[in-house]
Amino acid sequence: MNIRANGLAIGAVAAMGLTAISALPYAIAEARAQVSPKEVVFAPHRAVYDLSLDTTKSGSGVAGVNGRIVYELSGNACEGYAQSMRFVTQTLNQEGEIQTTDLRTSSWEEVPAKRLRFSTSTFQNDIPAEQTQGMAKRAQGTGAAKVDLVRPQKREAQLPGNVYFPIQHSMAIVQAARAGQTIFAADLFDGSETGDKIYATSTAIGHQTKPGAGPVLSLAKGVDGLDRVPSWPISVSYFASNQGPGDAVPLYEMSYRFHDNGVTSSLRINHGDFAISGELKELTYFEASPCKAPAP
Fold this sequence. Notes:
The protein has 296 residues and is mostly beta strands. It has one domain. Helices cover 4% and strands 47% of the residues. Strands 8-7-6-5-4-3-2-1-15-14-13-12-11-10-9 form a 15-stranded mixed sheet, with helices on one face. A hairpin with a 4-residue loop joins strand 4 and strand 5 (115-124).
């Protein structure tokens, strides 16, 4: 799972796809190279994560967190990839009050990043708080995209040609990791918040864990064989797109182990004042539909 395929926050949750160590996105400009997603194949699957409070700082106001993420990925490079996620948290503050946040996202992306259809709904204590829905479509030749928003209101927005869509971004991270890159920087659009928000992201990539050399997630259901899939420790920092080099403080950071088949484990979301961890509890693979060659 690339749980960030949608941005996550507690209390003010913004829709991603989640997972830290910050790396300045402007420090290595040459790392902003376009990385081709060819030959990256993600396995259709459902992953369930149990959430808990990892760390909290004095003054954060957060005394406890629990919740669950259910994430699904389906499709292929021919018909496009579809993602859906349900992200539910209960946050306990220091006054003993509990706030329940329910984030529901779904998207479909035509490969390679031609169109992105997205929908996001956020509920706070069962009350609708935010909704975004629309379609982004790239113009031929320029790579720039036009966003047709339906919610929160009907309007159009423009995206620059260098922006990445969620699946495109995930595949680019895998390609960068395979190539031995340690930093990958890119602007990301996922349809979250106002529907036209762009994040500047910087991904730090650790050394590959070879098949069979990584930890076996023996307590999780359905993970047999996942340790035989190459993986990398990944840390993604998310910044406002208008931040300059002197303002490079991430909005939040996500770290995780990213497996070559698109599965995510060992999730951690760091909001600065507090961080939550996500433990992979159940993994179910779906039968993949093969790409069919077009008729002659």
